Amino acid sequence: MHLSIRESDTKRRSSRDSEWRRGLRSLQRSPLAVLGLVIIGFLVVLAIFAPSLAPYSPTKMSLSERLSPPSSTHIFGTDDVGRDILSRVIYGSRISLRICTLVVGLTIGIGTILGIISGYWGGWIDELIMRISDVFLAFPALILAMAIAAALGPSLENVIIAMVVIWWPRYARVTRGQVLVLREIDYIVAARAVGVHESRIIMRHILPNCVSPVLIQATLDLGEVLLTAATLSFIGFGAQPPTPEWGAMISLGRNYLRDNWWYATFPGLAILVTVIGFNLLGDAARDILDPRLRHGAR
Questions:
Q1: How far from the centroid of its chain's Cα atoms is residue 72's Cα?
Q2: In the CATH hierarchy, which top-level class contains the domain 29-58+76-297?
Q3: Among 95, 141, 203, 289, who pairs with 212 as Cys (CB 3.0-4.6 Å)?
Q4: Is it the case that residue 268 has pLDDT exceeding 90?
């Protein structure tokens, strides 16, 4: 019995490896997926090398150059206190990437753990976790995030906390649904029957099979996370001046939009392009990792 379980486990790992290889080949054949990957790769490069790539300090003020239009000196122009907008957009990529990474990473961790607990053990634990998640899902995400951020106080850290609080139920439900299917599969039932420890079953059999749906959800959420964070900063709950966050920059620039279009336009374009990149990458990840879509396309 132990031998058959090990052989089955080996075959599943081999099957997953071949699926990943097929997925990578599909990614290479999809120009939109490659475009999304290039956009996000460019964002990562900007974030890592911002001090070297930015021509000026993002907080350096020069009142003599305030509201200067785009030129060879200031490619994206300057803001109302003479700060270089290109430098602030470049440094803003760091903040955007940090928000997306922290929010999605923390919600994956919290949601996956709670989803596994809920789906594997069931009973009153399942009811408790799912009813709590229902409470959070009953409210519009942006409105609930605004309420939490307002209660905690305006800051970037509090925005991240608010978004983690409202986002974890998505991953908990995705993981729970996967676990409910997996725990009834023959090889897991057999593993329990021969006395394999539950922690080993979860780590070796349950968790690896939850990776694909969680990653699909994560890649699809990245653009929405960025938009929500920018919206919260735009209305004053997120990053505070002089932090070069894209949503906060648009909020300041809207007062000058009629005569100084560049102030809000370039941070807005940065958000637009980044969200498009995340969405293209998310669609590609779904097509690659979701076996139902992959098999249906054949």
A1: 35
A2: mainly alpha
A3: 289
A4: yes
